[in-house]
Design a protein that fits this description.
This protein has 617 residues and is an alpha+beta fold. Helices cover 35% and strands 22% of the residues. It is globular, with a radius of gyration of 24 Å. The N and C termini lie far apart (51 Å). This is Glycerol-3-phosphate dehydrogenase.
């Protein structure tokens, strides 16, 4: 049995460990396996295309040409928005044999989809209401998300994995309470569970009575999003980042939307893209897109801000998260290991919609205060390496009679002929959200797909054939050729850290990156203490539509999210390599540096933020 099959077998079981007074109880009742159909001929032909070692995504110029059309030869679907849902819609529609285009104002995953908690989860916070509040709707939502979680992990195994999460219990009632709830939620298991070394033995004025361990999924969110975009491109979709909708095109007689006027934000040129249906998947910005069609459209979005901070790795052990479902003020608090560092969060407060949301320093302070209650180590504000804010697009159905209830589920609507809007939901359910949106678009445009939705059984680029042991082949077969400051080329070992990073970030395509590092003398690290290589900049410019320095530090690599100071120091070399790949002149390079520095200022850290109360000095 392959490692991926074994991993998914584990994901189909339940394991809840209750650790109390030095003992542990492990329950592993079986859960029915996923019987998704396989062997669909379209899936097989697409797999060959997507996983062809020589396959290269069409150039940006070709993608733009494919979007430009006429009334007599329109696209079937034009997607507005390149986040997880939008790219999911493009992939779903393209794999049904439809002609698809997608435009994104900034970059793929530049908004909410890159600023998530990095969890692929069913929603622990909704479970209490579902189980103990006897809310069947919430329970159905959680179970649906858990099913989608299995599919996300299976379809991108290099970017996703199971993560055990520990919930501390400070009285016996909590031990029973959380055990009862979380054993229903859990879908994954391991035979052993290591404790959280920095967990405090006392909290809330009480002694720790036990811990409940359950399993969730974790991902590299923006790389998963970029993988969706590139997979859609290989499947035939014309995807274009840094291109925005200026206005909609309407039929003079029926006033139905028949396309959009698009501006390429890199060249400044505008063109018309015609389509039978436009799908609005603009996340928090979907209302502004809807108002282009109807200036009197009522708002669908109730924006909520989620702030996260990144701390050094010693705050959490590798391979174990800590989640407190309800703090003293009712919020969820967590600490999760991620890419060699620790993510802590989060907040959930109303906010305004802005392209670059910034975390409020009071929110950062709240997170530090909250985790301090559960740790036996000194929590210091000087340890904050990066902090960011993401906008959750909580949705209100404009067609619902009762609009008081804000949905954590997604909403699909067509208020204006030819414009289907999909919003709400969460990362975990992006695939089923996309499926619902494409179904609605097919109905709206009377489209004729060649087959049903097949994305539940379609590996993303780099995922097919990937095994956790792939990094060993990289370490054994490649060297990192590095240019010294004096220009001399010296060989360097492809160490385990670099090899593992390439394997998980690029999957089976990691060998392409390693080849660039070896053959083009781009094997040097971009930042001290991080495994990112110069070769990745060149690879992403050639194969992942990386068009700016910000695209790389935020979405292709995760340096901006992990360490703002390291990202800042890496910028000159990143821009130098991108200038070579894209033929930038000195003026463009200077502009890139300025924009990237301004972007990093929106990521608060101990280097650029001021904490006033002195509690965590």
């Amino acid at each position: 049995m392959s490692a991926s099959a074994t991993r998914l077998r584990r994901l189909a079981s339940v394991a809840v460990a209750v650790t109390a007074c030095g003992g542990a109880v492990l329950l592993t009742p079986p859960v029915s396996s996923n019987d998704r159909a396989s062997g669909h001929p379209t899936v097989e032909s697409l797999r060959q295309i997507i996983n062809d070692p020589s396959a290269v995504v069409p150039s940006r110029t070709l993608q733009e040409s494919a979007l430009i059309g006429t009334k007599s030869g329109p696209l079937d679907i034009l997607v507005v928005g390149g986040g997880a849902t939008g790219c999911g819609v493009a992939l779903d529609a393209a794999t049904r044999g439809l002609r698809v285009g997608l435009v994104e104002r900034e970059d793929f995953s530049s908004g909410t989809s890159s600023r998530s908690t990095k969890l692929i989860h069913g929603g622990v916070r909704y479970l209490e209401k579902a189980v103990f509040g006897l809310d069947y709707g919430q329970l159905k939502l959680v179970f649906h998300a858990l099913e989608e979680r299995k599919q996300v992990i299976e379809n991108a195994p290099h970017l996703c994995h199971a993560l055990p999460c520990m919930t501390p219990c400070f009285d016996w009632f909590e031990v029973v309470y959380y055990w009862m709830g979380l054993k229903m939620y859990d879908l994954a298991g391991r035979q052993s569970v290591e404790l959280f070394p920095t967990l405090a033995s006392k909290g809330k004025g009480k002694s720790l009575r036990g811990t409940v361990v359950y399993y969730d999924g974790q991902m590299n969110d923006s790389r998963l999003n970029v993988g969706l975009a590139c997979t859609a491109a290989l499947a035939g979709a014309a995807v274009l980042n840094h291109a925005e909708v200026v206005s909609f095109l309407k039929d003079e007689g029926t006033q139905r939307i028949i396309g959009a006027r698009i501006r390429d934000n890199l060249s400044g040129q505008e063109f018309d893209a015609y389509a039978k249906v436009v799908v609005n998947a603009a996340g928090p910005f979907c209302d502004s897109v809807r108002k282009m069609a109807n200036k009197d459209a009522l708002p669908m979005i109730c924006p909520s801000s989620g702030v996260h901070i990144v701390l050094p790795d010693y705050y959490s052990p590798d391979g174990m998260g800590l989640i407190v479902p309800k703090t003293k003020d009712g919020r969820v608090v967590f600490m999760l290991p991620w890419l060699g560092r620790t993510i802590a969060g989060t907040t959930d407060s109303s906010t305004s919609i802005t392209p670059l949301p910034e975390p409020n320093e009071n929110e950062i302070q709240f997170i530090l205060d909250a985790i301090c209650d559960y740790l036996n180590v000194k929590v210091r504000c000087t340890d904050v390496l990066s902090a960011w804010s993401g906008i959750r697009p909580l949705a209100v159905d404009p067609n619902a009679k009762n609009t008081e209830s804000i949905s954590r589920d997604h909403v699909v609507s067509e208020e204006y002929p030819g414009l289907v809007t999909i919003t709400g939901g969460k990362w975990t359910t992006y695939r089923s959200m996309a499926e619902d949106a494409v179904n609605a678009a097919i109905k709206s445009g009377k489209l004729s797909p060649s087959n049903e939705c097949i994305t539940s059984n379609l590996r993303l680029i780099g995922g097919d054939g990937w095994e956790p042991s792939l990094f060993t082949a990289l370490a054994q077969q490649y060297v990192r050729m590095k240019k010294s400051d004096g220009g001399k080329v010296v060989p360097g070992v492809m160490d385990t850290a670099a090899a593992k990073h390439l394997s998980h970030a690029y999957g089976t395509l990691a060998e392409r990156v390693a080849t660039i590092a070896q053959n083009e003398n781009l094997g040097k690290r971009l930042a001290h203490g991080y495994p990112y290589l110069e070769a990745e900049v060149a690879y992403c410019a050639r194969n992942e539509y990386c068009e700016s320095a910000i695209d790389f530090i935020a979405r292709r690599s995760r340096l901006a999210f992990l360490d703002t100071d390291a990202a800042s120091h890496a910028l000159p070399r990143i821009i130098e390599i991108l200038a070579t790949e894209h033929n930038w002149d000195k003026s463009r390079q200077k502009e890139e540096m300025q924009k990237a520095k301004e972007f990093l200022e929106t990521f608060k850290s101990s280097k650029n933020a001021h904490f006033h109360d002195g509690k965590h000095q």
